[in-house]
Each structure stands twice: as structure tokens, then as C-alpha cells.
Specification:
By secondary structure, the chain is an alpha/beta fold. 34% of the residues lie in helices and 28% in strands. Helix 4 runs parallel beside helix 8. The radius of gyration is 22 Å and the shape is elongated. It starts with a strand and ends in a 10-residue tail after the last helix. The relative contact order is 0.11.
Length: 316
Amino acid sequence: MATIRVQQQDFSLEQEMHRLCQPYQTIGGIVSFVGTVREITGDERVTAIELEHYPGMTEAELQQIVTEAHNRFDLEAMTVIHRIGRLEAGEQIVLVLVAAAHRAAAFDACRYTIDQLKSRVTLWKKELSASGEHWVDHCPGCHAAVTVTGHSGWAHLRVGVVTLSDSRTLDNDHSGEALVQMVEANAATVVCRRLLPDDRTIIGQTLVELADQLHLDLILTNGGTGPGPRDVTPEATRDVCDREMPGLAELIRQQGLAQVRSAVLTRGIVALRHRTLVVNLPGSTRGVTHSLQAIADLIPHVLSMARGEGHENKIG
């Protein structure tokens, strides 16, 4: 038996332990872990954090972790609760309860579950301190196990991932890595991955190469969509594309606005170069995952129509 919850309200360790144990007579040990908001992060004092999740995706990942724990260890029951929303320093964030007939299995399963939560669950964290607020890049799930869920038609897509930045390297290109994971998790193929400077000519030439020589179905760019003087990705995309898809770009902005007000500042476009769809995504890991998810179900339909196949393969 497993209980999984993602919630804003606090939880009671005592109540959850009672609820876990009540149906069972064979429990020999219970191991619990409670994670709390740290007041000190690095050299800065954190007053609060804000956690966001992806409804459906986060719960599915928690369920997968719990199922794996049950398969690996001889367990009776588990409870996993992860809080979201604004949490003050010292508040409880996460609860893991593991019940087993033998203590060794309970300890091992609890440690395994905690480690998996830290690296796989799709959550975004904003830290609030006296100096202001900022999103934390290295939060649980920010660039691991990100999935485009429930969308058919991706299986045979040939995709290029292009990161636009004057400062990143492949080692710290977390948003590009998140896109690769999203594509591969749905059985599509990442044919190439490029890291380019914010140069309009170079970006345009690369898009032409990927569309005309590699014949990719989809090119996902990330970065260079803001109002800064070096943000030229939309202009470079327009230079080489035939037809814009403004509705898809607006869907991306709408999805982003539901998460953060500054999403309206992105100038990214979605456009076709012949039969290749080019999608401009923001540069942050959080931004690319939210944005691609907003239009993922429509991409196969757009490509089908661009190939002249009409509406027969409409998704959804």
C-alpha cells in the first residue's frame, strides 16, 4: 500500500504514522524522514521558499519512485508527502514514511526514496531572502526526468536542440539537457544538439542547415528571446522561416504567465521553414519545460499538416 500526496497544507508526523500502521499487523519497523526549509543556504539567510510543481507529472514521478521502492525492498506500506507553495524557514517540506517487517528493508527503502526524490521529482524552487528572490537552478527535478506526458505522435520525430548563449557551455547547459530529456523520454530522436553565441547570422545559418540538410522535423531553440540587446533568436528565426504560427507562441506565453509575470517579456516565435517547425523557448530550465509542455500535443498535428496530410492525424 502506498499513499502519495502533493499539497500546500502542513502534515502531522504522528497522524501520518498512525494512518500508515493502522491496517497492518506485520510491521516490525517504521523509518521516517522529514525534510525542512533550511534557514542558511551558502552565505545567505533564507526567509522562505516557494515551490511549484507540474500537476500530474509530479505525482506520476512520485508514484514511479514508490513503485520502484516496493519492487526493490520487502515493504508493507509507504507514505510520501511533498508540500508546495510558500514555506517559511524551518517549516516541513517533505515526509517519507516506510513500514516493513524488518528494519533493514525500511532503512534502505527510506534512503533510496529520499535520494530519488532529490534527483527526479519535477519541482521548481524560488528562494526569498533580504537581498531579494531568485529561482534556484539546482532544485529537485529541474533538469532530471522531465517528460512530455500523454502526447502521441512524437515517436518518429527527428529533433534538433539549439541553445543560444554567450556564456554557457555544454556542461552547464541545463535547459538544453532538459529539452533532450523531454524529447528522448517520448521516443523521439535528438539528431543534433548545438550551443551557439547570440549572433543573428550564425543562428539563421544553423537553422537553415538543420532544416534543409539534416531534414529535421522539429528544432527547439532555447535562450535569446528576451528584450536584451543580444537577444536575437526571434529575428534570426524570422529571417529564415516561411510561415509563423502565432497561436502556438501565444500559448507558450499564456502558460508562462500562469507561472511568472515576466513571461510576457519573451519574444519567442514558432514558425515553419518548409516542413520543419522551429520553436523558440526561453533560456531557463523551468521556462523551457513549461513552454514546451504548453504546445507539445499540437506539434505532431502541425507537422502533419505541413507535410500536406490534412487533418486526419489531428491530436486530441
